[in-house]
Design brief:
The protein is built from ten helices and 20 strands. With 369 residues, it is of the alpha+beta class. A hairpin with a 4-residue loop joins strand 14 and strand 15. Helix 4 crosses helix 10 and helix 5 packs antiparallel against helix 8. It is globular, with a radius of gyration of 22 Å. The two termini are 26 Å apart.
């Protein structure tokens, strides 16, 4: 059986500015979740004496390489709204699919746009949605020849706020989560690496208002980096300025600087109060952003907090309180907020799967003109 005749794999994506999140069901019926950084640069990339398998050539002949080096000055700006329609975005998405073992396989991709991009000033921005769809349909070629690109049969585009709500409000058996009973209007905060998306959604999944800011979790990391330098003597750090920002994620999760070995526990430097200060400052900024979208929070039944940043500000860290509780009196944070958007895309794709497979089958049977 050739790849073109195989049943397409349905791949749910969330191609955010900070991470590419992916969810699909493999041939053994296992649900696979993968998150990789949204780091892509122009040009070729080498690993040792060989060309990297993550370098891809576009139809125009331009080369892009997916990397794990966040310090490169050549990285594409993934916060630019036009990134969502770019060659770089296509390379990041299709590379993630190929690296997950789906190279050369037919796939149906479901991806997202921030609500502020999905909905224009006069409603749904059909032109932008179509541009996003067409962008991901264009082929790319692996420069090293070691990896095949997936064969994209169809692309679906969803608004991020809606997919997050669908995921959080749906139990594994498909029934409604009891916490959402009676909820008519919700405000959804999607806190990512570099951006924070805010949207008001009603019970019919209609987006009533939305806004995107650049107050992502990187703001907290940058502030902590400065605090560690300002209080280096008090903490007992001799070279605080040499701590790389990329190392702060793990440090924040731990709450200390030092060895993880239990035998050296007494030598660890406790930094929890500085993490809390940086987190509280970001939470205050987000609260102001929320107020710019909606002054009267009493008109909202629930605040749904998702995105990777919800793991830090939403009470998931053992030593930090749920700072989102200052935003509304009913805050709901799902178990895995970093996967909420991707899971929502997956749910919506599964609902439409029989219809999509039928449409694709009809397309294969229809002779070309």
């Amino acid at each position: 059986m050739t790849a073109n005749n195989q049943t397409p794999v349905f791949v749910a994506m969330d191609g955010g500015s900070g991470n590419i999140s992916m969810r699909f069901t493999n041939d053994r019926g296992e649900v696979i979740n993968i998150i990789t950084p949204s780091l892509v640069r122009r040009g070729r990339l080498q690993h040792g004496m060989n060309e990297s398998t993550s370098t891809w050539k576009t139809q125009s002949g331009e080369l892009f390489s997916v990397t794990d080096d966040g310090t490169s000055m050549e990285l594409v700006n993934t916060c630019d709204p036009e990134y969502q329609l770019s060659d770089a975005n296509r390379v990041l998405v299709l590379n993630a699919v190929a690296q997950a073992g789906l190279g050369g396989r037919p796939v149906v991709i479901g991806d997202t746009l921030p609500a502020v991009q999905y909905y224009g000033g006069n409603g749904i921005d059909t032109a932008r949605i179509e541009a996003k769809r067409r962008n991901l349909m264009q082929p790319i070629t692996n420069y090293s020849g070691e990896l095949k690109a997936p064969i994209v049969k169809k692309v679906l585009v969803f608004p991020e706020a809606v997919t997050a709500y669908v995921s959080a409000s749906t139990l594994p058996d498909g029934s409604e989560h009891p916490e959402f009973e009676g909820v008519k209007r919700s405000i959804i905060i999607d806190l990512g690496r570099f951006t924070c998306d805010i949207a008001i959604v009603n019970e019919h999944l209609k987006v009533l208002s939305c806004k995107t800011t650049e107050h992502g979790i990187h703001v907290m990391i940058d502030r902590l980096h400065l605090l560690l330098q300002e209080h280096a003597e008090e903490i007992g750090l001799t070279n605080a300025h040499e701590i790389q920002k990329s190392a702060l994620d793990e440090i924040i999760r731990q709450g200390y600087i030092g060895s993880r070995a239990e035998s050296r526990k007494h030598l660890r430097r406790d930094i929890t109060k500085y993490v809390e200060q940086a987190a509280m400052e970001l939470a205050t900024q987000i609260r102001e952003d929320i107020r710019s979208v909606l002054h009267n929070m009493l008109s909202i039944d629930m605040l749904l907090f998702v995105g990777g940043g919800a793991n830090w500000l939403g009470g998931k860290l053992s030593y930090l309180p749920n700072l989102a509780e200052a935003w509304h009196d009913f805050v709901f944070v799902p178990d895995h907020p970093e996967l909420a958007v991707t899971d929502g895309v997956h749910i919506l794709m599964e609902q439409r799967k029989p219809q999509i497979l039928q449409e694709l089958a009809m397309t294969e049977l229809t002779p070309e003109a």
